[in-house]
Amino acid sequence: MAHLLSTTCSLDVSSSNKLHFKSINQCSTPIPTSFNMGISFSPLKKLSLQSKRSAKYVVRASAVSMSQEARTQNDSGSQQTTDGASTRKKVMVIGGDGYCGWATALHLSNKGYEVAIVDNLIRRLFDDQLGLDSLTPISSIHNRIRRWKSLTGKDIQLFVGDICEFEFLAEAFKSFEPDAVVHFGEQRSAPYSMIDRSRAIYTQHNNVIGTLNVLFAIKEFREECHLVKLGTMGEYGTPNIDIEEGYITITHNGRTDTLPYPKQASSFYHLSKVHDSHNIAFTCKAWGIRATDLNQGVVYGVRTDETAMHEELVNRLDYDGVFGTALNRFCVQAAVGHPLTVYGKGGQTRGYLDIRDTVQCVEIAIANPAKPGEFRVFNQFTEQFSVNELAALVTKAGEKLGLEVKAISVPNPRVEAEEHYYNAKHTKLIELGLQPHLLSDSLLDSLLNFAVQYKDRVDTKQIMPSVSWKKIGAKPKTVAA
Ligand code: NAD
Ligand code: USQ
To answer: NAD-dependent epimerase/dehydratase domain spans which residues (predicted)?
Structure first.
């Protein structure tokens, strides 16, 4: 049986890809000098095998009672009970150790929500397996949470485990009793899902089964719980018509209906999100689940009010060719004097948003829940840019800081349209009160300065893209460190 992992746990994985939690203050993840990623690789299997073998997991909820909590002035996480009393809304953040999830967990905690993080820490293991690292040094999840408590007096509960294991998730649900679940806990890199067959299968299994388990957990244990699911703008692809928010009204042979907007995803990762959306929509209809699918664009930035409070709260920033996303990569490339890597013609246009808006959008979705049975879709981005436009903006900002920046076109490792129409609607979150942080010169300056601050940590070998959409095969991809 899978269990909830306490801060005093001891976890051992006896294989070449080792993950040890030796003590509460020390998390060591030895990187093998070389390994065959395919044959030995199955993060899912390894973690579940581990949970069956080990008797060291214990259940430990670390919440303190409300009276012990230091409340902040900006509390917005409370709700009225039927007898008029005020209680704090409980939000479970699945994937709360990741890039979007960590920033969101702290933001919600700061706003007065009672927060629990659920995460199996697999993202940290991917880095070790591929020999990658965040630009910023990130503390262990335990130290992060302890630091947050010492700075604010606020507790965040931690459940370490895999949501693909229903027993684990069920225990976490029964123990925490969430009013809302924010689900970030997926394998989220398109290139990772295109490395080889085992990564493709892992991605779809992890994402689709994990989400199905969340839906079953809500049905079984918390019927009223609002699911806020992170989807992606990439579910829509790049159609030659305007992209609507989730649904489109079509008249065909004289009859009219409002239907889910057509999906044309372009990686096994993006396809997993499409399947998630269908499963969620179906369970809203069949079981009355209330859900919001946040079709998020590409996120950039690293600082939020909360993560800026202490170096142990600093968020991860990926710049490598597998997990790094466009604008974050370009800023790091500019900082180290690497040419900006525009794939192909650079006309690829996507929706983008500042990570400060990710946390704001999630808060807005939680504060304005979907109705029972409603499958609500919001397009979560604030501006759209082509890759060439991003490169031009970073070049200009870099020159202002005295950096010599140039962009090059590299052969596109992906299969995607490089010149296309793109006009995606994104009004629903604005209508609910989103106040966007738009990409500005000052923001680019600060992002670039941030990248410069950590540039000694950059491994320039990780910058060029290494995963080809066309060359993916069943054969396990071998990587030597
Ligand atoms: P991330 O990889 O940094 O974080 C994901 C977290 O989920 C990790 O901490 C990982 O350990 C955890 N996780 C994965 N599978 C799990 C499982 N089975 N059980 C428990 N925990 C699990 O990713 P991110 O950039 O924070 O993205 C979060 C979500 O937002 C993803 O669903 C992604 O698809 C979506 N999204 C991200 C972006 C972006 O630009 N980063 C843009 C659009 C949508
Ligand atoms: N690109 C370049 N050069 C680079 C990196 C990317 O030209 O160095 C191009 C890509 O080819 C693509 C575009 O920039 O056309 C965006 O790529 P990306 O790597 O920034 O983003 P993507 O792979 O789409 O994935 C990211 C997140 C994913 C999320 C998605 C939102 O990793 O979790 O779902 O953004 S969206 O793009 O809207 O689907």
So the answer is: 91-379
∠ CA 88-90-95, rounded to 5°: 145
Residue 18 in this model has a pLDDT that exceeds 70: no
The residue ranking higher by pLDDT, 190 or 480, is 190
Contact 388, 350 (CB under 8 A): no
Strand boundaries in 301-435, DSSP class E = 340-343, 349-354, 375-380, 383-386, 407-410
Query: What local confidence, expressed as pLDDT, does residue 74 receive?
Result: 52
Identify the CATH assignment for 90-462 out of 3.40.50.720, 3.30.70.60, 3.60.10.10, 3.40.50.12370.
3.40.50.720
Closest ligand 1 atom to Cα of 325: 40
Residue 31, strand partner residues: none
This prediction has a pTM of 0.89
Can you name the residues that pair with 5 across neighbouring β-strands?
A: 160
**Pocket of ligand 1 contains residue 321 by CB under 6 Å:** no
Pairing of strands 226-232, 180-183: parallel
Cβ atoms of residues 125 and 149 within 8 Å? no
pLDDT tens by residue, 431-459: 999 999 999 998 898 999 999 999 999 99
Strand order in the sheet with 156-160: 156-160, 114-119, 90-94, 180-183, 226-232, 290-296, 375-380
Residue with tokens 């202002």: 400
Residues whose beta carbon lies within 6 Å of some atom of ligand 2: 188-190, 232-234, 297-298, 325-326, 329, 341-343, 348, 350-351, 387, 414, 416
Ligand 2 nearest atom to the CA of residue 234, by list position: 39
Q: What is the DSSP letter of 346?
A: S
Q: What is the pLDDT of residue 50?
A: 37
- Domain spans, the chain: 90-462
Phi, psi of 292 (to 5 degrees): -125, 125
How much distance in Å is there from the Cα of 202 to the middle of ligand 1?
14
Amino acid at 131: G
For the question of residue 269 being annotated catalytic, the response is yes
Instruction: Name residues whose C-beta falls within 8 Å of residue 406's C-beta, 6 or more positions apart in sequence.
Output: 339, 340, 395
CA–CA distance, 159 with 93 (Å, rounded to integer): 10
Buried b (16+ CB within 10 A) or exposed e, 223-257: eebbbbbbbbbbbbbbbeeebebbebeeeeeeeee
